[in-house]
Amino acid sequence: MEDDDMETELLSLMKQRRSIYNLGKKVDQSQKDITAMLKDVIKESPSAFNSQTTRVVFAFGDAHEKVWDIVLDELKKVAPAEAFEGSKQKVEQQFKAGFGTILWFTDMDKVKELEDGFPLYADNFYDWSEQHIGNSQFAAWTALAENNLGASVQHYNPLIDESIAKAFDLPSSWRLRSEMPFGSIESTPDDKDYMDDEDRFKTID
């Protein structure tokens, strides 16, 4: 099959998906519609043994603001004063300014259940849970981009884990893996750089 015969709709969406740091609240879609779409996308994301180890919290409104207030509270405890001011500006202008936040978790009780149930593969299930959360994040991120919503993936865990769990009354088995603020796209990101194909790929006939 020639390259011109290949379908490229997915590739176009993948190119549209970028890390968007300047977010806003000018979103046309409702919270209900965004959440319903993301639930379907995440449910269709593949996982080893169909294990479905990823857990998600959709935070809007006051809950969204609370996530980033917690980040700032915890950062202030550990960051030097001069560094904290820069972090505060970044959090408030880039993440808290968005429309919502997706909190991504791995259910460690489910991972343990799989390890006990399939001892031959026990050493792999946590790695596979990371693959599932990666698949789910990419799918959700791309779906947001398809709907002209920007997002980025942040990693303030494990610094905020305990406070997030307490604030939102989450199960102790849910291990926070990342935070995805999203919203309207307020500025276009710079061009993306790519490493040389020769350093990245091998084709073997």
Describe this structure as you would to a colleague.
There is one protein chain. The chain is globular. It has seven helices and five strands; from the N terminus they run αβαβααβααβαβ. It has one domain (30-184): NADH Oxidase (3-Layer(aba) Sandwich). It has helices at residues 9-16, 31-43, 61-78, 81-95, 108-117, 125-146, 161-167, and strands at residues 23-24, 54-60, 100-107, 150-151, 174-185. 26% of the residues are buried. It has 205 residues and is α+β, with helices and mostly antiparallel strands. Strands 1, 2, 3, 4 and 5 form a five-stranded antiparallel β-sheet that branches. Residues 15-183 form the Nitroreductase domain. It is found in: Cytoplasm. One of its GO terms (cellular component) is cytoplasm. Keywords: Cytoplasm, Oxidoreductase.
